[in-house]
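From the pipeline queue, job 12 of 40. The input is one protein chain; the requested action is below.

Action: predict structure.
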Amino acid sequence: MNSADASGLAVRAAENDAPRVLQPSGWPAPKGYANGMAADGRIVVTGGVIGWDAQERLASGFLAQARQALSNIVAILAEGGAGSQHLVRLTWYVVDMDEYLANLKELGAIYREILGAHYPAMALVQVVRLVEKAARLEIEATAVVPR
């Protein structure tokens, strides 16, 4: 259920003190992300997470690295007592925007499989390269766990 606050900003009602999606009135609904989020609680953040396993072996290819990076984020969040439902922000760094765009359908399926249908505020930035030369993407996550 959506309601408007004093400023006219649409705010989706929170369930179980989950983060709230902020959607300005009259704006088109974003697909696969939120324009903004509001939450109250304990902050859990990750560093830049890439698609390697516990032995620091990178998965092969963009989609495999995305799957592993998102799985790594879920593991880090769990260490902090958070889940994907607590995510309020993801910042994606990709080395090839065309590679990202060419894989949107498959990436969306992987995202939903790992994080569910929860879409926090997101930013996507193309970078020249990442610290690990073979890494195709890196993701930073911020979650807020209700008090």
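Job complete. The longest helix spans residues 62-79.
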